[in-house]
Specification:
EC number: 2.3.2.27, 3.1.-.-
Structural class: alpha+beta
Largest sheet: 6 strands, antiparallel
Order of helices and strands: HHHHHHHHEEHHEEEE
Number of helices: 10
Distance between the termini: 96 Å
Oligomer: single chain
Shape: elongated
Subcellular location: Nucleus
Helix content: 25-40%
Main location: nucleus
Strand content: 15-25%
Protein name: V(D)J recombination-activating protein 1
Number of strands: 6
InterPro entries: RAG1, RAG1_DNA-bd, RAG1_pre-RNase_H, RAG1_RNase_H, RAG1_Znf, RAG_nonamer-bd_dom, Znf_C2H2_sf
């Protein structure tokens, strides 16, 4: 084919005509002469292409969507594309997939929150290995990660342990360390021994009382706010609050049975803990109760003070 551009007149092979024509940048009506491929390979399905090829094929549509998004949606291309996808799914009656996509868009996701998974693990008395087995099975069978992995649960658990939340007593407490670090110590240190006590070696993870109380109250934040709302006490956020706690100590049985493998150990595990019984707030001369523990004897509402092997 002879090139129609003035002052060129070059003769080009039929197959290389389009390539040659693209070198003439100055030619405005280039499209009129461009070589049209009427035969050749059939077009591959859009989803089977590489990401680069998908971008290439959709570039014109992408440009139109971008223009629309900038004009109508403040430049939010993602929202426009997601909405188009949702409409396409619903038009084909694929409502389940559309609902899942909508949940992900709203930040809910199809999976459970780590804190919810932790609550499920504790309330159903599953050990870590039992939970992990369930997590793997559900993931393999459903193909989706509905339960969260163990490491996510451990991270969520840290927020429930004393020393996690920064706090400040006003006025400051006397003779109380400002350090909230948790340490491994002799669990009976500081407890006055009576004559009847057997000399026993202990190792314990002991928390500062005030740090443990702050963490327990932080964990109960939603219940406290709900209770205040129910009694129309929104203005009393600064307190003063009266918190009644019950202290308790229980043996946790023979730990050698809980080890699974390894040598049997003669120790007993002991837990010192407390339960928040009720919280009230002073209003004028009367005191209004905004929280009361429904099951004060349940071990699920025990807040740890000291976990000890004796």
């Amino acid at each position: 084919i002879r090139c129609p551009v003035k002052e060129c007149d070059e003769e080009i092979l039929h197959g290389k005509y389009g390539q040659h024509l693209s070198s003439h940048r100055e030619m405005k009506d280039r499209e009129l002469y461009s070589y049209i491929n009427k035969g050749g390979r059939p077009r591959q399905h859009l989803l089977s292409l590489t990401r680069r090829a998908q971008k290439h094929r959709l570039r014109e549509l992408k440009r139109q969507v971008k223009t629309f998004a900038e004009k109508e949606e403040g430049g939010d291309i993602k929202a426009v594309c997601m909405t188009l996808f949702l409409l396409a799914l619903r038009a084909k009656n694929e409502h389940k997939q559309a609902d899942e996509l909508e949940a992900i868009m709203q930040g809910r996701g199809s999976g459970l929150h780590p804190a919810v998974c932790l609550a499920i693990r504790i309330n159903t008395f599953l050990s870590c290995s039992q939970y992990h087995k369930m997590y793997r099975t559900v993931k393999a069978v459903s193909g989706r990660q509905i339960f969260q992995p163990l490491h996510a649960l451990r991270t969520a658990e840290k927020a429930l342990l004393p020393g996690y939340h920064p706090f400040e007593w006003k006025p400051p407490l006397k003779n109380v360390s400002t350090n909230t670090e948790v340490g491994i110590i002799d669990g009976l240190s500081g407890l006055p021994l009576s004559i009847d006590d057997y000399p026993v070696d202990t190792i314990a993870k002991r928390f500062r009382y005030d740090a443990a109380l702050v963490c327990a109250l932080k964990d109960m934040e939603e219940e406290i706010l709900e209770g205040m709302k129910a009694k129309n006490l929104d203005d009393y956020l600064n307190g003063p609050f009266t918190v009644v706690v019950k202290e308790s100590c229980d043996g946790m049985g023979d730990v050698s049975e809980k080890h699974g493998s390894g040598p049997t150990v003669p120790e007993k595990a002991v837990r010192f803990s407390f339960t928040v019984m009720n919280i009230s707030i002073a209003q004028g001369n009367e005191s209004k109760r905004i929280f009361e523990e429904v099951k004060p004897n349940s071990e699920l509402c025990c807040k740890p003070l000291c976990l000890m092997l004796a």
